[in-house]
Specification:
The chain is mainly β. About 10% of the residues lie in helices and about 50% in strands. It is built from 6 helices and 22 strands. It has helices at about 25-30, 80, 135-145, 235-240, 260, 280-285, and strands at about 15, 30-40, 40-55, 55-65, 70-75, 85-90, 95-105, 110, 115, 120-125, 130-135, 145-150, 155-165, 165-170, 180-185, 195-200, 205-210, 215-225, 225-235, 245-255, 270-275, 290-300. The strands form 5 sheets. A 9-stranded mixed beta sheet has the order 5-4-3-2-13-22-20-19-18. It starts with 12 loop residues before the first strand and ends with a strand. Mean pLDDT is about 80; it is low at about 1-25 and about 255-285.
Length: about 300
């Protein structure tokens, strides 16, 4: 599973390559979701990359084992999506196989390429659904003649691009079975000489960073559903970038409430570098909650 930062620190963070000047508009119409699952009795990571093209919707699926070895990759091209439903059988390196089924014939989409409802997507191995997404569960079970796995897949990370002039919106669920929250990030860099960064969760102001020109990179901890969520930001491109680029804001749900009391102040700036070429490793996933990476692009 590529293109996700895999190192996190207690202090503020410097996010490498966040200028994104080499990111095309095509790449911006992409949402990446990562799930931890059990496949053939062992832990694995399944990465789904939903994309939107001129030709239509596309989907890329990759499965890595706990040692980061790629087990398989499959591309569902936009013109295949025009059929709205289908299946593919993929042979793994040990001669076993998995089956991928999807039905988006009644799917509803928002502004992002990821479907919201009216669909199913599932991966089946040995008559068990390793991963089942969407609200059409009964239809998926009937189509595949398979049963959901005894251990549920865990949604561990998501990366998406958001756009706006001064406000950016998305939704997030920070714990399994928890409430889906509305997130709003606000920052006016045009009409003021002293911009600040504001974060709202369900319209409630939970974080405000003043003197942003001095604190353009940093971190803070907020409480969501009674659990600590670490917020990291890098808005250098908004304030000082010579080319149009995105800010990067990351939300990382902490599994330990102890973390709340050991958090460093927002003013403590560190020098941790997030490499976009590193992967999540399986042992780390046992210590990390859900992580959301937002690439926020200002539209003047």
């Amino acid at each position: 599973m590529r293109d996700f930062p895999s190192c996190f620190g207690e202090n503020a963070v410097h996010i490498a390559d966040s200028s994104s000047s080499n990111v095309s508009k095509t790449a911006q119409n992409v949402v990446t979701c990562v799930y931890q699952c059990r496949l053939r009795g062992t832990s694995c990571l399944i990465t789904l990359i939903w994309s939107k093209h001129l030709m239509g919707q596309g989907l890329s699926v990759g499965i890595d084992d706990s040692s980061n070895r790629s087990l398989c990759k499959v591309e569902i091209k936009p013109w295949l999506f025009s059929k709205k439903k289908g299946s593919k059988s993929i042979e793994l390196d040990d001669s076993s196989s998995i089956d991928v089924y999807w039905d988006l014939s009644a799917a509803k989409f928002g502004s992002a390429p990821e479907p919201l409802e009216g669909f199913y997507f599932t991966i089946v191995s040995n008559k068990q659904m390793v991963l089942l997404l969407g609200d059409l569960r009964k239809e998926a079970i009937k189509k595949t003649n398979a049963i959901p796995a005894s251990s549920n897949a865990t949604f561990v990370a998501k990366k998406e691009h958001v756009f706006g002039k001064r406000a950016f919106y998305t939704k997030a669920q920070f714990c399994e079975g928890g409430q889906i929250h509305d997130l709003m990030i606000e920052c006016d860099t045009i009409n003021t000489n002293d911009p600040c960064l504001i974060l709202r969760v369900d319209t409630k102001n939970v974080m405000q960073v003043k003197r942003l020109r001095w604190k353009f990179r940093g971190n803070h901890t907020i409480l969501v559903d009674g659990l600590p969520v670490d917020v990291y930001w890098d808005v250098y491109n908004w304030l000082f970038g010579t080319n149009p680029g995105s800010a990067v804001i990351m939300f990382k749900a902490s599994l330990s409430a102890e973390k709340l009391w050991t958090t460093q102040p927002v003013s403590d700036l560190g020098a941790l570098n997030w490499s976009h070429s590193q992967r999540f490793r399986d042992p780390q996933l046992h210590h990390l909650g859900f992580s959301l990476f937002l690439y926020a692009w200002k539209q003047e």
